[in-house]
Design brief:
The protein is built from 11 helices and 9 strands. It is α/β, with parallel strands linked by helices. It is an enzyme of class 3 (hydrolase).
Length: 312
């Protein structure tokens, strides 16, 4: 690891340390690291509008206890990482979504997922990591696919959760789930944002494992840490202006495990199956009852699946 970086204890969990990493491309990422320095490293890449805290502490600790060092971070435009100020013309999101679904190219976003994958590659360089295991969730899984294809020397094995390669004509997200994620809250004070977040968690999450009290606590913690809705929109535009990853998937040589929930209505399971089919030798695991989230109930199984994949 880079010994020049200054670390503080994470204010959110006792077994993680936090730091800021200047990537040298105008972006600074906020990073948390846990586990022993000499243990193999797993880099966790989170999804659309999701701060690093969306990787549950229980999930991180489960992997640390199985002999791994964990790195989680805020992507650009979210959490405590750099925000992108875009001065370009306003884009028609609905038009971009229609073109995206048909596999047509989109342009005009301030950045795309290739830029975000380059952020991760630069982060690994700055941390002094030659090679790591990677787990990407949702949009983070898309970034993980790009990272594995375009920076193969940096990714030893790949793990993907409830993600897609966005190839044309895949079943679209259910409207209720999609528009809950990108929709606007009724107000932008803390109570309005917490109320909106609760609705999102319930709509996109695992239907039989929603914990309202835990969701309220998480929503307040996230709001007080950072609230930047412009970043959510810009990350969504990045997805729409990246398009299909199908041809990139065919370039991935690393052993890959794709995990998807049977009750995911934001990205239905056929998306994960399409990724696994496109990547040579990839394995697919369908988790019965899981939605587009990581509830405590599923964490022992999930962490064991990924640990076995990386150790095998």
């Amino acid at each position: 690891m880079n010994s020049a970086l200054q670390y503080n204890l994470s204010p959110y969990t006792s077994f993680m340390r936090e730091t800021k990493v200047d990537l040298g491309n105008g972006i600074e990422l906020h990073v948390e690291i846990g586990g022993e320095d000499h243990h193999p490293t797993i880099v966790l890449i989170m999804g659309l509008g999701a701060q690093l805290l969306f990787w549950p502490d229980f999930f991180c600790k489960s992997l640390i206890d199985q002999g791994f060092r964990i790195i989680r971070f805020d992507n650009r435009d979210i959490g405590l990482s750099s925000k992108i100020k875009h001065q370009g013309p306003r884009l028609n999101t609905l038009k971009l979504m229609g073109r995206f679904a048909l596999g047509l190219d989109n342009r005009g976003a301030p950045y795309d997922l290739y830029d975000m994958a380059d952020d991760v590659a630069l982060l690994l360089d700055r941390l002094g990591l030659d090679e790591s295991y990677v787990i990407g969730a949702s949009m983070g899984g898309m970034i993980g696919q790009i990272l594995a294809a375009r920076h193969p020397q940096k990714v030893k094995k790949l793990g993907l959760m409830f993600t897609s390669n966005n190839q044309p004509l895949l079943p679209p997200p259910f409207p209720k789930q999609l528009f809950s994620l990108i929709g606007r809250p009724e107000s932008t004070d803390e109570e309005g944002i917490v109320s909106h977040s609760l609705k999102v968690f319930k709509i996109i999450g695992s239907p039989d494992y929603h914990n309202p009290i835990e969701s309220i606590q998480t929503s307040r913690k996230l709001y007080r840490r950072s609230y930047y809705p412009a970043g959510v929109l810009q990350q969504f535009l990045a997805i729409l202006c990246t398009g299909s990853l199908l041809q990139l998937d065919k370039q991935i040589q690393q052993p890959t495990l794709v995990v998807h929930g049977s009750r995911d209505r934001l990205l239905p399971p056929s998306h994960g199956k399409a990724v696994a089919k496109a990547i040579m030798g990839a394995k697919f695991e369908l988790i019965d009852g899981m939605g587009h989230d990581i509830p405590p109930h599923f964490i022992p199984n999930l962490s064991e699946l990924f640990a076995q994949h990386f150790k095998s």
